Amino acid sequence: MGALARSVYRAAHLLRITTLVRGCRAAHVPVLMYHGVCAGRVGGVLNCEGKHVAAEDFDRHLRFLKKHHRVIPLGEYALALRDGKPLPDHAAVLTLDDGYENNHSVAFPLLKKHGVPATVFVTADFVERGEPLWVDRLAAAFEGTSLGTWADPSSGTVYPLASPADKAGCYLIVKANLKKLGPADHARALGDILRSLGAGRDLPGLFAPLSPAQVREMAASGIVEIGSHCCRHLRLTTLGADEARHEVVASRERIATLAGRAVESFSYPNGDLSPAVMSLVESAGYSCAVAEGLRLNIPGRTSRFAVSRLALKGEDDDAAIAATLAGLRELGLRAAGLARR
What we know:
Radius of gyration: 20 Å
Distance between the termini: 21 Å
Shape: globular
Mean pLDDT: 93
Low-confidence stretches: 335-341
Strand content: 5-15%
Largest sheet: 5 strands, parallel
Order of helices and strands: HHEEEHEHEHEHHEEHHHEHEHEEHH
CATH class of the largest domain: Alpha Beta
CATH superfamily of the largest domain: Glycoside hydrolase/deacetylase
Number of strands: 12
Structural class: alpha/beta
Helix content: 40-55%
């Protein structure tokens, strides 16, 4: 977050503008999206997008949520959307994507400490087979390479890698390009890139998966619901209909076996969805699905198969957290987008 945005949020907080907006939007539901929660702060390419928050920051976020919101399970929110029933004012939902081991070792104790329910979305191949997420393999490759410059094998474009900022910028460009590819082209391009960077197979512990035993323990706790995040963490809109259906259906069955109970919720990898994909998820028997969207969910205008989510940053103070949960950060992002046009 930039210094200007931080100052704006603090001013809005002090002038009680955030409180006013929050009161007007009491029935709007923020659904928060996290990924990893680690013991300490992590920087470099490994966390250049801020996906992994430190335990002390997550703890602070949970304290704020507990004080100012009623955090409900995603399953309860899905039932309210299905039946059209009202929720208590200032309801909120918390989710974590991918299935990192630190969801159990770091986040789970904090969730129990504060009595805050959450849904952990598990990528089946990652947890069941220990196959690393491709984005993590890519990040680790850029973080660990000793190359000063690098030529992308796919395009021939040469990138500087002399500084951490160079590496992070290149990683983000390459990741965005890979996301556009179908499975066969994606696997081939990723393999070429990893080899050209001299990547090894070992990844930092930050990227370790949950074990099946940890999944079962959390699922049995009464405070964590387990959902599906597909089998391979590929964008479903890049797959053929049969392959996409397999990802949606097979992941539900496999993760239910891991968790020892039915899986009711789904998280679209990369927040990527379409009407056809939404229909697949609904027909597979899920009760709801979450995307990204970076906005609040409005009563009467939210599909339970396209629930939007917001993300908090580790460095967010109370003013920024309040602004995000009231939808002010969403308005700021929209205004910035319009200004760039």
